[in-house]
Amino acid sequence: MTAAAGPVCILAGAGTGKTRAITHRIAYRTLRGDIAGRHLLAVTFTARAAAEMRARLAALGVGGVQARTFHAAALRQVRYFAPRLLAGRELPELVPSKARLVGLAAARVGVRTDRTGARDLASEIEWAKSSLVEPGEYVVAAAKATREPPFESGKVAEVFAAYEQLKRGNGVIDFEDLLRAAVWGIEEHSDVAEQVRAQYRHFVVDEYQDVNPLQQRLLDAWLGGRDDLTVVGDASQTIYSFTGATSAYLIDFPRKRRDAVVVRLVRDYRSTPQVVGLANAVIRQARGSEARLRLELVGQRPSGAEPELRIFQDEPGEAAAVAARCRALVAAGTPAREIAVLFRTNAQSETYEKALAEAEVPYVVQGAERFFERTEIRQALVALRAATRSADPGEPLVRSVAAALEAVGWAPSPRPPGGAARERWEALAALVQVAEEFAATPVLLPIGEGAVSSRPPSLADFVDELARRAAAQHAPTVDGVTLASLHSAKGLEWDAVFVVGLSDGTLPTTYAKTPEQVEEERRLLYVGVTRAREWLWLSYAISRSPGGRPRRPCRFLPQFDGRPGGAGGSGAGSGMARLSRKTDSRPPRIVSCRVCGATLLGGADRKLGRCATCPSDLDEELLERLQAWRARVSAGQRVPAYVVFTDATLVAIAERKPAQRSDLIAIAGIGPRKLGLYGDAALALVAGAAVDDLEPEKTSANDP
């Protein structure tokens, strides 16, 4: 990335190496002497991503760059300027969760709610504050944004106002207040603005499609009208609009900054061409503003296994099959930590937890108990700190860590059987893995005038690194199959990925009612597919429970063949279907219902271009003329009527009313041969011609 200073927009598709691109851009500019690392602020959305960026920059020999989340950067600045901004008062305590105060606020205004309702209200208040909406503006803003609040919008506004009062009364602030305080400090205090802008002169923002209005306002305050800004994002991975995030800033970036350099990264280095082809097929049907920046990925890895679509009679059978395949993958040598089971809602997790436990497959639930809060990890950190006092400087770091962990009962082998003992062992083993990775990165030491030297990391360095990770909740990967929602899986990747529960009503969720909401659900599936490096399984159950009401498959899935298998099938030959793919470079053609958008699976539905249950716009008079014409042609050629056109094809013509040959051949069942034989006659009938008006040769063509 050698673009000069100024606005740069990197449109980076999934797996295209965006982190490498932006860290190399930073390194290029820094090591050339164009900028000083201490004057650059790189902002991302997760502590893990920020830590990864810092590690890569260190490996490139770049020091001094601040890589932080929006909240971490704001907290650092507000704390620094607090004595000046607060007239000597201490910075109010930051509450880690809104739910408790929101519950109290709801009770104060007479809204009865349980723990789940309090969390939903907290999420709604978070959306409002991130969108720069005040309590008195909430009702109108929520209606305009087509929000579906957990309570009547007027009641939500009352809870919102009471929550703000409770916060002030208790002398605490939340994360949105923190960002607002940083904005206020810069916008209202010229001396603070001058100092901040003197410190940070160059900016990089990762995952720019996820920025919300409050974060954008903070970014604008940091910039102060300057334009040395590099943004990186992928509109096709916009999946957090329910929190207030919007891809509008990414989409409008080149328009608002006419001199911006736009770079498109489309070479996918993560996934096999087969996975990439399926991802392209899913997102190719996207509509809306985000689709304008849609990228067609080009796979760079060697060919791999075809993605598979598996169909089951019910959810327990689906979960049992997934668990059995996970066990087989682990037995064949795939590390459990390189396998993930992804689903639309957290409520789906329990079924898979039970199935994996019964199959004796270790698993980790993404977003469950925080790693650094586990009892054995807290004990391990105490033991490691104690070991630094007597550590041998010449002993390899990994050996020192392993020796220290012996004090809390850990040993490299044997690994205990499943259960609590296994989970404890896996958690401690994850610390050793972190030590192995950390030992490979030398510690950089400045020696003056921009030069640096290096030395191997010590046990004390490692303990400091763990403290930083704990503060940022940057947890290591534990050796178990990951169970995660599609939202929480964003930014992660695994060798083998199961995307499960792909039935209409779950994905897309029944709550997705507007076209924009449905498109976001499509992007969720795209994110799930692009998490897989080598092996991908997509599945759905015909019914939720044995004998339950049938459901349709996810409308975003490409066309597939095969029939549903019996309940509980788990092997490759148990009646489950493989995803249809003609070649690696030609993804399956998706035929969607023109009424509801569902993927059409049956041949008759595909010819009609709509679900059989969706309302028809059939021109019955035209259909009668088409049927009379077909009868005349079939009699003249002495062939059955369906050889000319099937009933479904005639109905499709009478519904779609094609105006030209390209419209006609778009109807399933009409190929080049039939277009040549009958196309002119069909188009004439659509245009209003009577059967008797057609020339005989147009109704009695012979086979070539």
Automatic annotation (TrEMBL):
GO terms for biological process: recombinational repair. Residues 561-585 are annotated as: Disordered. Residues 563-574 have a biased composition (Gly residues). Residues 273-534 form the UvrD-like helicase C-terminal domain. It is an enzyme of class 5 (isomerase). The keyword 4Fe-4S does not apply. GO terms for molecular function: 3'-5' DNA helicase activity; ATP binding; ATP hydrolysis activity; DNA binding. Gene3D superfamilies: 1.10.10.160, HRDC domain, P-loop containing nucleotide triphosphate hydrolases, PCRA, domain 4. Residues 1-272 form the UvrD-like helicase ATP-binding domain. ATP binds at residues 12-19. Its EC number is 5.6.2.4. Coiled coil: none annotated. It catalyses: Couples ATP hydrolysis with the unwinding of duplex DNA by translocating in the 3'-5' direction; ATP + H2O = ADP + phosphate + H(+). GO terms for cellular component: cytosol; DNA helicase complex. Keywords: ATP-binding, Helicase, Hydrolase, Isomerase, Nucleotide-binding. It comes from the Bacteria. Belongs to the helicase family. UvrD subfamily. This is DNA 3'-5' helicase. The lineage of its organism: Bacteria, Bacillati, Actinomycetota, Actinomycetes, Micromonosporales.
